[in-house]
Every structure is written in C-alpha cells, then in structure tokens.
Amino acid sequence: MTPDTPRTPSGPTPPGAPTTPDGPTPPEPPGPGRPLTRKALLRAAVAAGAAAPLLATGGAALARAAARPAGARTLSPTPYCDDGDDPTPDQMEGPYFKPNSPRRTSLVTPGTPGTPLTVSGRVLGRDCVPLPAVLLDFWQADHAGAYDMAGYAFRGHQFTDAAGAFTLRTVVPGLYPGRTRHLHVKAQAPGEPVLTTQLYFPGEPRNATDALFDPALLMDVRDGGGGRDARFEFVLDVDGGPGPTDPPGGTWAAGRSYAAGDRATYGGRAYRCLQGHTAATGWEPPNVPALWRPEA
User: Fold this and answer.
1) 117 forms bridges with which residues in the sheet?
2) What stretch of H or E contains 144?
3) CB distance 242 to 134 below 8 Å
4) Which residue has the higher pLDDT, 15 or 207?
5) DSSP state of 72
6) Cys-Cys crosslink for 240: which of 129, 163, 188, 273, Cβ 3.0 to 4.6 Å?
7) In what order do the strands lie in the sheet with 116-124?
8) Helix or strand holding residue 42 (H, E)
9) What DSSP designation does 205 have?
10) Can you give the chain as a three-state secondary structure string?
11) Contact 295, 263 (CB under 8 A)
12) Residue 185's closest CA among 224, 225, 221, 234?
C-alpha cells in the first residue's frame, strides 16, 4: 500500500465543507509574543523523547513535566478546550475513505483478530461546552494494516450523546508502508463544517518518521483488560453546544435526557442545566446544585 493521499470527500461530508488538506506544520519554539500552549508542550515532550504514556487524567500535566527544565516552577494543568490553543487540527482524508458507513459503535465481532482497543472521549466547543449529536465517522486499517475497500470492515459512524461523549470499540490498527499507527475520523456538529483528522498512539517508533504525524493529535492510551484503552477530546471550531433549549412541556421529569444549557422548571422555579445527564428520581433540581443552577 502507499501513504495516504488526499481525495475529494463524499458521503456524509456536506457541500461547501473544506476538503483541501494542509501539510504538517513544523512546531514553533515558544518565544516573545508566543504563549507556551498545551500543544507546544506536547510537541516539546515528544521531541524530548518522553516515553511515559499520557494517561486520560493527566496528559497535559505529563507533557508539561517532560518539557519543563529542572528547577522550573510547576505549571498548573490547563483545560483541554481553553488554554489558548486552536481547535483540534485537521489532517488529510487519505485514499481509503468510503461514504455511507454503517451506524455502529463497535467495529469488531467475537473472534476479530488484533489487540482490542476502546476509544472514548467527548466533543467540545471552544468554550468547553459539550456538543451533543455530533457525527463521528471512523475508519482504519485492520490489525494487518489493510483497509477494506470492498465492504465496510473497520468503518462506522455514531453520534455523541447528550453529554458530548462517545465510545468506539475496535482493534489497534496495523502498520503499512509510510505511516505510523492511526485512526481516521470525520467530526461534524449539526449544521457546522466537517473536521477531517487522524488520531495517533504515543510511543510508536514510526511517529518520528511519519510526515503527517502531529503530537497535538496523540490519544491518551493505557493498557488494561487484555487490550488498550484510549481517550481523546475533540475541540470543534464552534461556539459551544446548541443554544439552550426548553424541554417539551418545560417541566423537569425523571428519565429525560438533559444537555448542558437546557432549561427546565420545577416547583414553579426555572433552572438551567450545568452538565448533561439523564434525570432520575432524587435528582430534582433543588437537590443537585452540581447539575442545575436556579435562574434569577
């Protein structure tokens, strides 16, 4: 096989969405007028040969530690979606994309060869608001490094839930000439442009030789349960979740799914949802200030 090359997107890509990929941008060292952002630190950590996995709860902090000179003051962790960085960078689509993938969250069946891999995370807007109903279309090589162009093996799309979360079950993709291990994905918030990008694995020897590799797209990966668990948070170039909505009837009800920003009334008072969740008895707005904020 040959390295990924661009082609015109089709299928779920809406008309007018950007399709011309940008080549990899060499990292710039921090300097006057250029803040030391999380992505810059990730690049510095990779360049320094940091070998420790970037775990789901501490990727930014570990990268900062790896890049920090001895004796320098400790930097506090910064949120993934609001530390002065750009949104998740785009990458080329490559020649192996196929439109009309099946809707599913698992790309494997019992007996599928390869190391099991679970990828989970959230999709956020620039202001850290989780984005529900985001289309995520994944495709990848199998464990031997081959793409299925005749059918839809290792291809599938799904939508984020009310909390902007997603989970994908698959296997670790194999290697093929010219590329390091990677997953392809298209992400599209309702009514917004498509982000086409790729996700990478830390500690891969070919990361250093793959011209497309970008450390800003490293997943946080760890071993567990006979396979590997990975996490990634997409940040789309949108203002946040869909505007606040009033649930049908406007009255809080157990069993209903609420997204951050939704409005509901309870006991004659209006409340605004702070975190996406499915309501349950005992979680009435006055009882859970972590989920609901009373409106003036």
Assistant:
1) 170, 228
2) none
3) no
4) 207
5) P
6) 129
7) 165-171, 116-124, 227-235, 220-224
8) helix 38-47
9) G
10) CCCCCCCCCCCCCCCCCCCCCCCCCCCCCCECCECCCHHHHHHHHHHCCCCCCCCCCCHHHHHHHHHCCCCCCCCCCCCCCCCCCCCCCCCCCCCCCCCCCCECCECCCCCCCCCEEEEEEEEECCCCCECCCCEEEEECCCCCCCCCCCCCCCEEEEECCCCCEEEEEEECCCCECCECCEEEEEEECCCCCCEEEEEECCCCHHHHCCCCCCHHHECEEEEECCEEEEEEEEECCCCCCCCCCCCCCCECCCCCEECCCCEEEECCEEEEECCCEECCCCCCHHHCCCCEEECC
11) yes
12) 234
- Residue range 97-108, pLDDT digits in tens: 999 999 999 999
CA distance 201 to 213: 10
The identity of residue 153, as a single letter, is A
pLDDT band at 257 (very low <50, low <70, confident <90, very high): confident
Q: Which two tokens stand for residue 277?
A: 């969740």
User: Tokens for 98?
Assistant: 């196929």
